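Q: Got a minute? One more chain.
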Amino acid sequence: MRTLILAFLLLPLATFADEVRVTVGMGRHDAVALIKKHSGKAITPGLEVVGPKGEHPLTGIYWEFQDYDAIITLDAKDGKVIAMTFWTKKDFGESKSHRAKTEQSITALKIDTKTREVSIEKKKNAG
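A: Always. Here it is, folded:
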């Protein structure tokens, strides 16, 4: 019994958190695991996205959260998330020009698993 209590006390606090964060700087593998765990689905293959060397279909760049009003992109290098962008589902569903106007560079996506609310931390402009 003591072992069970000790194991419970050693669990990370994030295990009990209502807020889940995907952030720039975290490992890509960890970010994708969190996204998938919280209803995220890779939608890149269904888009007309072509890589810099003509690669198609690309995978793992665009993610739609089925249970939340969020679509994000993950840009990674050397296994780390280096940039993220965000749209609401409504904005992403509009034309490509509207999508370009409403795209937001972010440093974190936060989802509340109880209220199903989404919030973002925007990338600060240099200057």
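A: The radius of gyration is 17 Å.
Q: Perfect, thanks.
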